[in-house]
Design brief:
Layout: H1 11-30, H2 37-44, H3 48-54, H4 58-71, H5 82-98, H6 102-115, H7 117-143, H8 153-171, H9 177-192, H10 202-207
Length: 208
């Protein structure tokens, strides 16, 4: 697990930004096996001792990199309309995946997560955090009566991004505007049809 870190300022912030940028570049170019702290220090132009003292392991650097991605992610849309909100979400996912650096970085992190449990945990936290940010788009629609009361908000949000990631990771094709629009509108239609009803627990089934 990454060490506890207070939010840095001044020189500390510049060092963190430089090391995390270097880590992202190295992960894209070399993959997880090519990363080491001394190499990251050289890339970042900072002292090796500083990097060892602050992070200690490559895994801690990658966890901090993912935390930074959460901190700097764009806010959710709040249009008051489910379709428009999900279209905005799909557009954001598409723009991230097609960004020359961010798309490659996310792909590299997903590959690294296959072999490294720490990276996998960090990436899961990233996606859980981003999903939670967008869940109010769905819960607000439930409150307006636009969706069934038992709609699983997280499942709807994941359904928007899933086909876009699938297209990139399994076909090597960057999702286009039409792909993003289709993903959002299909998720919205399925949600209205009750396809994302929250699962009923075993205990609830026994007492019903």
């Amino acid at each position: 697990m990454a060490p506890e870190m207070s939010r840095p300022g001044g020189r500390t912030a510049r060092v963190r930004a430089a090391v995390l940028a270097a880590a992202g570049d190295a992960l894209i170019e070399l993959g997880l096996p090519g990363l080491d702290l001394a190499g990251l220090a050289r890339r970042a132009g900072v002292g090796k001792t500083t990097v060892y003292r602050r992070w200690g392991t490559v895994a801690a650097v990658l966890e901090d990199l993912v935390s930074d991605m959460v901190e700097t992610s764009a806010p959710r849309a709040d249009t008051g309309d489910l379709d428009d909100d999900l279209l905005a979400n799909a557009g954001l996912v598409r723009s991230t995946l097609t960004d020359p650096r961010q798309g490659r970085l996310l792909t590299a992190l997903i590959c690294a997560a296959v072999d490294d449990a720490g990276t996998a945990r960090a990436l899961r936290r990233f996606y859980d955090a981003r999903t939670a940010v967008w869940e109010p788009c769905v819960t607000d629609a439930v409150a307006r009566g636009d969706l069934p009361a038992d709609t699983d908000a997280a499942a709807v949000v994941r359904a928007v991004s899933a086909p876009l990631y699938h297209q990139l990771l399994t076909r090597g094709e960057q999702p286009g505007v039409a792909d993003a629009r289709r993903a959002a509108l299909v998720a919205a239609a399925a949600a209205r049809a009750g396809a994302f009803a929250a699962p009923v627990s075993a205990g609830a089934r026994r007492t019903s």
